[in-house]
Amino acid sequence: MDPLLPLPLDPAAEDPWQWLEALDAPESLDWVRQRNAACRQALAQDEAFATRRAALQAVLDDQARIPAVARCGDWVYNFWRDAAHPRGLWRRAPVGEHLQAADPDWQLLLDLDALAAQEGEPWVWHGALRCGPGSERALVELSRGGADAAVLREFDMASRQFLPQGFQLPEAKSRVVWLDEDRVLVATDTGPGSLTDSGYPRQIRCWTRGTPLDQAPCWLAADPQDVAAHAWVDHGAQPPRVVLGSAPAFFTTREHLWHDGQARPVDKPESAGLGFWHGWLLLHLREDWSVAGRQWSAGSLLAAPVEDYLAGRRDGLQALFQPSPTCALQTWAGTAQRLVLTLSDQVTHRAEMLWPADPGPADAAPLPWQRLALPLPEGGTLALQPLYDPQLAHDPWAETLLVTATGFLTPERLLALDLDAVAAGQGDAALRPLRARPAHFDADGLSVHQAHARSADGTAVPYFVIGPAWDPAGDDRPCLLYGYGGFEVSLEPWYLGGTGRAWLSQGGRLVVANIRGGGEFGPAWHQAALRGQRQRAYDDFIAVAEDLRRRGLAAPGRLGIQGGSNGGLLVGAVMVQRPDLFDAVVCQVPLLDMKRYHRLLAGASWMSEYGDPDDPADWAYLSRLSPYHNLRPGVRYPPLLLVTSTRDDRVHPAHARKMAARMLSLGQPVLYHELMEGGHGGGADNAQIADRQALEYGFLLRVLGPR
User: Fold this and answer.
1) Residue among 300, 565, 605, 645 flagged as catalytic
2) How far, in Å, are 225, 350, 428 from residue 421 at the CA level?
3) Tens digits of per-residue pLDDT, 386-405?
4) Is-contact 299 519, C-beta < 8 A?
5) Are 440 and 499 in contact (CB under 8 A)?
6) Using CA of residue 129, residue 132, residue 135, residue 136, what is the dihedral sign?
7) From CA 20, how far away is CA 489, in angstroms rounded?
8) The dihedral sign for the CA sequence 460, 462, 467, 468
9) Which of 98, 230, 256, 680 is labelled catalytic?
10) Using CA atoms, how far apart are residues 371 and 318, in angstroms rounded to an integer?
């Protein structure tokens, strides 16, 4: 037994390592410090580690990266971190300058490093909610150490000061939206009975400035068994529509419109996402729906005139998008005149815009919609952001689209697209480059290749191979296989800045598996691996690994796997099921104890994804999938690196703690590292993220060996 491993407090208990669930207990933190020291002794003592960490941080701190912005009125807002400002700067610039100048004149609003030093708090930025174009008020959310829970304070952007008598909330997993400058809708922890079983707020209150929160009227209350309550405001309508809702499960919602002092339910499938665009109501279906004599398939985007739909008429529904076996809707967004759809086609993006042939939906007869493909880069990922602000009466950028285009080997490029010019047939002339991020590694000689593996049930599972040019004869390079496979999350191409420096430039190959459970091919791809069908996601991942072996792209001793959160559960499960197949495992902020996951932090909110361990029928399959419960004496598992965070208040660090403790008790090769802050994102600032990544790549290179 490892000499640094304390004995469990109750060796006879069913779960002898349950004491590690006590997050801040002295014995738990002593264990964490001992394991951290052992990990750093093994991985962080040589010059190569320091060099790798510096290279990774340089990517994260790159001054030439493209600022992510959000528009409100005449300004775009950005939160920026770099080496000089590790906790970050909240700033803004005029919209026109952002569209013209290579380096606009950013106005500083809040220096988070200075605030953290002044208040002695490890503040991590969680965002800001601006009141609207005519206001200088914002609600700033600050997290201690990167946890999901945050404090909220009202901020005056004109004076750059927090308002002592403004809206304020203590640390909680709050949700707040502005109604006007003197009222907010707030869902927060107000004491007993105010939270769901998942630990999220269940009451939505209308809070008026200057009044006590506990006296604010409750406009909607979710059931305690629901995941959470939520609210949002559709500013595209006059007066704005106030939407109040609850989530009975992770992918279902019950929505209400606040009207005449009442929350009136919107009749829709609970699994369908609801949206509004001017006079249209939009539904994004996650399940097939039969209504008014029509059958609509899961993954479709439907539109109907708002008033007709709310009056109960369903014959006006029209399909704006219907999926195919290889093409799914990823996102939609609206401008003043058009809807913009981002589509995933064979796991890369394309986009189109559409608009009703008639200016409005007043005619009772369904009206056809015009449709045009957008002239955008192909073969990668597109992030489309309309600059339209519906709260402005006259918006000069109402039809301007910001486009970020990227690929595995292609750094991000920011472009502006004029949708009016596209509609006028001007094509590529409507597209204007704004900024381009420089490359962080030499991609010469590297390529991206898409292949398919055949899963256990015969399903074709796509995966990307990134690295040296595809060689059907194979080679002896270290290969890292990455996956997620849950919650309808799609793994589409992203720029491999840090991975390129720390892995590809060292001769490594990266493989990204698009397994079931994700959203690459729409809701059906996700639902195929829900609950009792979860093994399909693991079978898909195993099939990709076996296909790499068969093709010679993952030589014996050279195949590592990596995943985080639900992806941590993935790599933990396949490691236990097929220890012969994998040679190294990096498991990040994982779920691993599927017997108690629903009792830890936000775990109860995921039971629609995994199942209820207290239900004997669900535990029958969960017991076969739970990595923590399927470790066996006498089996040799591949070397494992577990990384997590004490401040992760979404996935409890006890999952990783207990897995490490049990593996150590079995004499298995495991290293464990727990950040004392950072939350579920794995780092509170760029230095912490770079340090963690340097440990991970150092572990993989040590176990799998450089080429």
Assistant:
1) 565
2) 50, 18, 9
3) 999 999 989 999 999 999 99
4) no
5) no
6) positive
7) 30
8) positive
9) 680
10) 14
In 483-550, DSSP assigns E strands to: 509-513
Q: CB of 598 within 8 A of CB of 606?
A: yes
Q: What are the strands of the beta sheet with 85-94, ordered from one edge?
A: 70-72, 75-82, 85-94, 107-111
Contact yes or no for 205/217 (Cβ under 8 A): yes
| Mean pLDDT, residues 368-396 | 95
Tokens of 294: 């029509």
* Block residue for tokens 């704004």: 434
Residue pair 129/153 in contact by the 8 Å Cβ criterion: no
Q: Report DSSP state, residue 409.
A: S
Query: What is the rounded (10 degree) CA torsion for 303, 306, 312, 314?
Result: -20
Whether 508 contacts 480, CB under 8 Å = yes
Q: Where does 32-58+442-704 sit in CATH, by number?
A: 3.40.50.1820
Would residue 85 show up in a list of annotated catalytic residues for this protein?
no
Structure tokens at 293: 């004599």
Across the range 184-213, mean pLDDT stands at 96
Residues 267-286: b if buried by 16+ CB within 10 A, e if exposed: ebbebbbbbbbbbbbbbbbb
* Model confidence pLDDT, tens digit, residues 665-698: 999 999 999 998 888 888 889 999 999 999 999 9
The whole-angstrom separation of Cα 457 and Cα 442 is 40
Q: Can you give the pTM of this predicted structure?
A: 0.95
pLDDT in tens, 208-223: 999 999 999 999 999 9
Residue 270 is given by DSSP the state T
**Residues 683, 75, 400, CA angle at the centre, nearest 5°?**
100
Measure the CA–CA gap between 260 and 278, rounded to whole angstroms.
21
Q: Is 300 an active-site residue?
A: no
What is the reported pLDDT for 15? 92
Dihedrals φ, ψ of 403, to 5°? -125, 125
Distance (Å, whole) CA 706 – CA 700? 9
- Could you state, in order of their start, the residue ranges of all structural domains in the chain? 32-58+442-704, 324-439
| Residue among 457, 649, 497 nearest 23 (CA) | 649
